[in-house]
Amino acid sequence: MEFTGSSYNGAFKHGRMEGEGEYTFPTETKYVGEMKDGMFHGKGVLFFPNGSKYEGTWEKGISKQGMYTFCDGLEYQEKDWDYCDGYDRRFYTERCNGLQPAGNSQLTDLDPPHVIPDGCYDCGEGFYDPNTRVITDYEHHFIRNAEGHEHEWIVRTCRKSWDEIVGHSHDN
Question: In DSSP terms, which residues pair with 145 in a beta bridge?
Fold first, then answer.
């Protein structure tokens, strides 16, 4: 597996990738795991630039079994997957009231959505202020401090107050 712009961090045997290592493709997709004779072989994880990942067991470069997880944490299931079916609560409002007309976006289950305070995020259970790293409920009562991964997840995925007002920008 030699691609221009790719990189490998691990052991070699007879000039081929062997053992535990990290291989980064030119697309910035990264494989971390076991290799044999220059191919993915054994347990390994593909990390995609959008934050999703595929954890699998490989045999001579071919995935034999694995699990794909979307960047929001949703795990794909080959059978009996209830995503987007009649029992998926994420789309309750759409099932009850139908879809919005083209051009009208429904940003949250609550329509109209909460007005996000300036400089804050709507993290689903309340508002998050990235400067103080405090999450409050929608009535502005303290819930908790957000640290590390939670802070990163909110900043990466949640609705922002500055996205709600056309022409208003915010530096991050």
Answer: 134
> Is residue 153 exposed (0-12), middle (13-18) or buried (19+ Cβ within 10 Å)?
middle
3-state secondary structure of 162: helix
> Is this model's pTM higher than 0.85 or not?
no
Question: Do the Cβ atoms of 28 and 22 come closer than 8 Å?
Answer: no
E-state strands within 48-87: 53-59, 62-69
- C-alpha 58/C-alpha 81 separation (Å) is 24
Strand order in the sheet with 121-122: 142-145, 134-136, 127-129, 121-122, 159-160
Which residue matches tokens 């070699």?
12
Return the DSSP state at 92. H
Question: For 88-136, how does the pLDDT look when each residue is reduced to its tens digit (9 = 90+)?
Answer: 555 666 667 777 677 666 666 666 778 899 999 998 889 999 999 999 9
Sign (positive or negative) of CA dihedral 56, 62, 68, 70? positive
Angle ∠(103,106,111) on CA atoms, nearest 5: 130
Torsion sign over Cα 115, 119, 120, 122: positive
